[in-house]
Design a protein that fits this description.
By secondary structure, the protein is mainly α. The chain has 14 helices and no strands.
């Protein structure tokens, strides 16, 4: 399953049990299409928000027992019903995508993590509900993994996000390390930038490792899936360090040798 357009979705979905592949695919189509409304093409903000609001109306119709008409929701609705998936998780995703349309800066790490809570964490929570494993501790550790993945994606894509134009690096951290917007615009990787990014990489890695036991505790393919996701996120962080934090000129991506390494670590943790 491609994750080019929605990188917080599980990177190892081929490992999922066959019975859950269609439910996961239905959730993915919902998330990817909604994310595209916020990010892709040349639509004005008003039209992006209108399309996201139309998705919210479809969720309201499901909750009220009214008919749904959109193809995405005709596919998703039976999945929600069959697995008892909480509608607030889908609403959180739409709320985060709507925020991306209008918000381009984050004052603090706490503010950014609140965005991750809505833009990333619902995906892991939905998977746990599909696997009937949504215990409080599992949900907490899943949130750590998903938020860490979101942060890693942001640090990987600083230059791409600047063109949108968005800066997910918290303003408090930019101020602390003496990095201005002009430096991001110029793609200047100096020692201040390296210190800033080293701090962000260390923080994302710590959050990922806090959630990593989830992959060891969950049985079967679900545990394997989580271990692969964790290994993939950690590998991107390693690659950011390997380019000495110069993500402007050498954006780290997962390549074939990385996937072999990720699968090995997932199978033999």
């Amino acid at each position: 399953m491609s994750v080019d357009h929605y990188e917080n979705f599980p990177v190892a979905s081929v490992l999922l049990p066959p019975a859950l592949r269609e439910p996961v695919a239905a959730i993915y189509v919902f998330a990817r299409s909604a994310d595209d409304f916020a990010d892709e093409g040349e639509l004005p903000p008003e039209e992006r928000l209108r399309r996201l609001d139309a998705y919210k109306a479809e969720l309201d119709a499901i909750e009220a027992g009214r008919p749904t008409t959109h193809p995405v929701f005709l596919r998703l609705r039976p999945v929600i019903a069959a697995h008892g998936l909480p509608l607030p998780l889908f609403r959180d995703l739409l709320d985060a995508f709507s925020q991306d349309v209008v918000k381009t800066r984050y004052a603090s790490y706490a503010e950014l993590i609140d965005y991750c809570r809505r833009s990333a964490d619902p995906v892991g929570r939905l998977l746990l509900h599909l696997f009937k494993a949504a215990t409080p501790e599992n949900l907490r550790r899943s949130d750590c993994v998903c938020s860490a993945l979101q942060l890693i994606n942001h640090w990987q894509d600083v230059a791409i996000d600047w063109a949108k134009p968005r800066v997910y690096l918290p303003q408090e951290d930019l101020d602390r390390f003496g990095v201005a917007d002009a430096q991001i615009a110029a793609g200047l990787c100096d020692e201040r930038w390296r210190e800033l990014m080293r701090f962000q990489v260390d923080r994302a890695r710590a959050l990922m490792l806090e959630g990593a036991p989830l992959g060891r505790d969950l049985p079967g393919r679900m545990g394997l899936e989580i271990r692969a996701i964790v290994a993939g996120g950690l590998r991107i962080l390693d690659k950011i360090e390997a380019v000495d934090y110069d993500i402007f000129r050498r954006r780290p991506v997962l390549e074939k040798p990385d996937w072999i390494r990720i699968l090995w670590r997932a199978v033999f943790p």
